[in-house]
Amino acid sequence: MNRRTFLASTAALALLPLSLQAAEPILYKPGTAEADMDGGKIVLLDFWASWCTTCAAQERILAELKAENPAYEQKIAFYKIDWDIYSKDTLSKSLQIPRRSTLVILQGRKELGRIVAGTSKAQIRDLLDMGLAAS
After folding, report:
1. Backbone phi, then psi, for 79, in 5-degree steps?
2. pTM of the model
3. Do the Cβ atoms of 43 and 79 come closer than 8 Å?
4. Cβ neighbours for 111, distance < 8 A, ≥ 6 positions apart
5. Which of 53, 54, 99, 124 has the most CB atoms within 10 Å of its CB?
């Protein structure tokens, strides 16, 4: 293999993981998710904390599922809501979020389903599939 071919193939391989990575979820600020919800969009709200091991497990599973099925990111807006900051926020209260590591899928303001502290890949896939079915 000549040097030019090697460099070109190395550069292509270096870019490959970037193209396969799931898009980052939107970090919640008051009003951002609500605007999408009021627009009737499918929204997944991920109430998490940086120190929460269950939240970290859910995050890994969500990333795997989004990589396996690009339709999730095409049809669902993913929001990460920092529990340490927004646990007492209007959105958290209106949805009666009991704790961090809660995933809620909505179509507009209508709740389609939720998982509290669940880390089953099948259960999280089912939740995302509810969103796809509603889109």
Report:
1. -120, 130
2. 0.82
3. yes
4. 95, 104, 105
5. 124
Question: What three-state secondary structure class fits 89?
Answer: coil
Residue from 2, 1, 109, 88 nearest 45 by CA: 109
State the chain's mean pLDDT as an integer: 88
Strands 42-48 and 76-82: parallel
What is the total count of domains within the chain?
1
In a domain, 7, yes or no: no
Instruction: Flag whether 3 is in a domain.
Output: no
30 contacts: CB under 8 Å, gap ≥ 6? 86, 89, 90, 91
Q: What is the pLDDT of residues 87-120, one digit of tens each?
A: 999 999 999 999 999 999 999 999 999 999 999 9
The domain in which residue 57 lies consists of 22-134
| 35, 91 contact by CB (below 8 A) | no
Extract long-range pairs of 49-53: CB within 8 Å, 24+ residues apart: 49/82, 49/83, 49/84, 49/100, 49/101, 50/82, 50/84, 52/83, 52/100, 52/101
